Please model this.
Amino acid sequence: MKLRTRSSAIIGTLCLVASLAWTTASADEPAAPSQAAAKVVLTKVATARNPSAGTAGPGGTVWIAERAGTVRVLDDQGLGDPVLDITGETTTDGERGLLGVAFDKEFAHFYISFTNLQGTSTVDEFAVRTGEIQPDTRRTVLTQTQPYANHNGGDIAFGPDGYLYIALGDGGSGGDPHGNGQNLDTLLGKLLRIDPRGGKPYAIPPGNPFVDDPNAKDEIWAYGLRNPWRFSFDAGTGDLLIGDVGQSAWEEIDWAPATSKGGENYGWSQMEGNHPFRGGTEPANHVLPIHEYDRNGLGCSVTGGYVYRGEEIPDLVGQYVFSDYCDGTVRALQMKNGDVTGVSDLGVDGGQVVSFAQAGNGELYVLDLGGSVSRIDPA
Model:
């Protein structure tokens, strides 16, 4: 989730959040001219215990992960009792905990991403039958040891290609002391792509960009990331968007078209956004962020969201909705072919925005680490 990383200090139970990757945009610095905002309100639909992630589930439900290790189902009746409980297997020190959840396209398998008691990033799979998790089918798909308790990343999602994408931060501490962001021989600081059902424990998709490079990990899809706390695919176009939490000066949102063959280098730790980091040299293949904002305002940790593809708010369709853990203001980017054409403040405060969730119908929910689960509705 996210921990506040304006410095190395972490604020109590909120630590996980800020350093993990949460950040909003500073009203002081739009990357493009502001445009008239869609008129929205936040409708509180449930209260959870430190909600950390969410995903669309079967039957129009939304499955909500709670940081300590429980998963609950949100439906028209509200938030139900836990359908999964791994609280005895995870730890919530630093930025750790249950950090990501995802279903495959058929809702036949459910995946969780968490840090175990040793702090190791772990992705597990469960079979799902008639909308219910089958505990006896649980298996571990992927693990990655973590040198520090922050910058674990942990988001997971299935892409339009049917493969599972996994975001891992650079390993933590500050300033990427091990150089993981630009090192292709580690999974840290990367976005991975695997086929969890194609092998034991998984298979490498043949189109991954580094499968023929003996000096690179086959799982890597993109690299040069500091803490990609939240990423998503545009349900309308298949484009990829990543909210990557900055070190101390710049928060960034990265983009790749649906036609991408992978291999993008987003620059960390030579770059922080568009700016050399501590005298770094910009890589020749650096892919610039489509949006960045500084920390002169209240923002400190970008929380990536989703491109809105619902029907309830027509003026918001096609815009990328995001926030910042420290600022809480929900904002939107207007985009065209990967270029930002405008930035708008939607005028609602989501609190400690640790994540968003997208329902099957395209409507969006805002998760406040303090407990509120709210839907973005038309005003």
Notes: The first helix runs from residue 15 to 20. The helical segments are 15-20. Confidence is low (pLDDT under 50) at residues 1-31. Residues 1 and 212 are 33 Å apart (CA to CA).
